[in-house]
Specification:
Elements: E1 5-18, E2 21-35, E3 39-43, H1 50-58, E4 65-70, E5 73-75, E6 82-85, H2 97-107, H3 112-125, H4 141-154, E7 159-163, H5 171-188, E8 191-195, H6 199-205, E9 208-212, E10 219-224, H7 239-262
Parallel strand pairs: 3-8, 3-9, 6-7, 7-8
Antiparallel strand pairs: 1-2, 1-4, 4-5, 9-10
Helix pairs in contact: 2-3, 2-4, 3-4, 6-7
The structure holds adenosine-5'-triphosphate.
Domain ABC transporter: 7-239
Keywords: ATP-binding, Nucleotide-binding, Transport
Family: Belongs to the ABC transporter superfamily.
């Protein structure tokens, strides 16, 4: 990680206006930054505006106030400097793994042979060797998410935005995917902003965890995670890890419980 600020979020507010219904204030005055090569996660109760913030950073929706800067330049629409991975895979079912991973590059005008070479590199990094010519329906959920990550990385974004990428996976696959994501990150050194409901996932992966308050989302606390790297799943059993997870859980527990009662 370098000291250079890659992503800066300045005083972001978001109010959703709805016809014939009260407006929803989703985010209030969010200020945060992520350094080049840093891995940061956001946790918070359901409805605290985490996905809304990620969509604003990606440029998919406009904020009501404030701005997003990438390397000091304001961005207000999607661009090749940011790539998003969603909870549900968004692969093209009629294209093979290699064509899915190369898709963004060919769209951007890269020659097919070059796009395929780059795609192959990220297929290798994502541990998908041997599956290049499979179609999405021939892959497990975990493998489809690896293809999604490979596809996002293939366009060489400055920032990887991950919106609950493992939420649809079973618990064991999810843990394996966490370690794989770490090794991909170690190899590519991308700047990563991840949203997750799982506090242990956030602590395991991150350099820093940002804790949101309930709606309207505000930053309640930023917690540096100084646990040594490289990290293995063993770390989850260490007292320092358990203590951090517990601290974060206590910060959001009341709101998570209140949310469950409302739903
Ligand atoms: N297009 C929209 N119109 C109106 N309200 C919206 C819209 N999108 C989101 N919201 C509301 O904004 C609030 C924040 O939603 P958001 O999905 O960002 O929260 P979240 O923290 O990601 O939640 P979860 O953890 O459940 O995914 C919620 O109350 C949601 O209902």
């Amino acid at each position: 990680m370098s000291d250079a600020i890659r992503l800066k979020v300045e005083k972001i507010d978001k109010v959703f206006k709805r016809r014939d219904k009260p407006s929803v204030e989703a985010l209030r005055s969010i200020d945060m930054s992520v350094a080049e090569g840093e891995f940061v996660s956001i946790v918070g109760a359901s409805g605290s505006g985490k996905s809304t913030l990620l969509r604003i950073i990606d440029g998919l929706i406009a904020p009501s106030g404030g701005r997003v800067l990438v390397d000091g330049r304001a961005v207000d629409k999607p661009g090749p400097d940011r790539a998003m991975v969603f909870q549900q895979d968004s692969l093209l079912p009629w294209k093979t793994v290699v064509d899915n991973v190369a898709y963004g590059l060919t769209l951007a005008g890269t020659r097919r042979a070059d796009a395929e070479r780059t795609a192959q590199r990220f297929i290798d990094i994502a541990g998908l060797q041997g599956f290049e010519h499979h179609y999405p329906h021939q892959l497990s959920g975990g493998m489809r998410q690896r293809v999604n990550v490979a596809r996002a990385l293939a366009v060489n974004p400055k920032i990887l935005l991950l919106d609950e990428p493992f939420a649809a996976l079973d618990a064991q696959t999810r843990e394996i995917m966490q370690t794989e994501l770490l090794s991909i990150w170690q190899e590519t050194r991308k700047t990563v902003l991840l949203i997750t409901h799982q506090i242990d996932e956030a602590v395991f992966l991150s350099d820093r965890v940002i804790v949101f308050s309930a709606r309207p989302g505000t930053i309640r606390e930023e917690i540096p995670v100084t646990l040594p790297r490289p990290r293995t799943l063993e770390l989850k059993r260490s007292p320092a890890f358990v203590e951090l997870v517990d601290h974060i859980w206590k910060l959001i527990e009341a709101e998570v419980r209140a949310g469950i009662k409302q739903s």
